[in-house]
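Researcher: If only I could read backbone structure tokens as easily as an amino acid sequence. Walk me, if you will, through where the backbone shape changes along the chain. I have put the entry right below:
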Amino acid sequence: MHGELRRYLVIRPPGSTVGHLPVIIDLHGSGSSAEEHAGVTAASSWAMAGAVVVLPQASIPFQLIDGRPEGFAWNVPGSPLPGESSARRGPDDVAFIDAIVSDLIDHHGADPTRLHLRGYSGGARLAAHVIAAATGRFASACFVAGVRFVEPHAGPLPRILAIHGLADTVNSFGGGTDTRWSESVPSAVRRWALAAGCPDASTTSNTDHVVDSTYVDALDNPAVRLLAVKGAEHSWPGTSDQDHIAAFGVATDFDASGAHFAFVRDVEADAASAVPNDRH
């Protein structure tokens, strides 16, 4: 891309092709890698369930925490990397993700109606810019531990799921004073809901593990949902990766990967019922 070699990892069911399967494009967090993120999120379980997971690799070498191996970070538009004072001019990672989507559709037969975007922490921040720039490109988007609002271009928004730990001290649920992370999670989610045309009110349920808030659109369809995970810090909720937990705190027993999988199944089921002949 622009003379630079970029890579992405693909995990898919044995013997399958990308066509006619849901495709989840999953963006790792700052200081991580595609391979590490695949392990943290148990990406292989998606392949066992009949989905394809595509994990792009960021290209900025970056060490988020002293003592951890150097990984990579995304260039989130307008946002400095942690520890830096100004945003970088490149690479254009929004264009990189768009190029991956085009490659999957044009050269690997991916169904353009079955594309789903997900990001964790810094990857979630980038995902917000991706869906804002490419409205109508994805069927759904999931932000884990990093939901931010970006004013979208005109066009239909995907269904949105945000998952965030109530005890997160890296990207605080209640927001903060840092310009990189000032808005609260509920405020960012609410603004996505308003952009999706939802009334300014959500329905909320409270379970042992999460506070579940859902905004519905004018047709009473669930459009934007927030799962606030009780006791969870910045770790991927439900992960069993002990190195990840040691770095980012309590993960709890709530299974973020499972919750996202159920969300994608619901999105695809609703799409199939709306256009019954669009699935083969």
User: Anything to note?
Assistant: The chain has a mean pLDDT of 94.
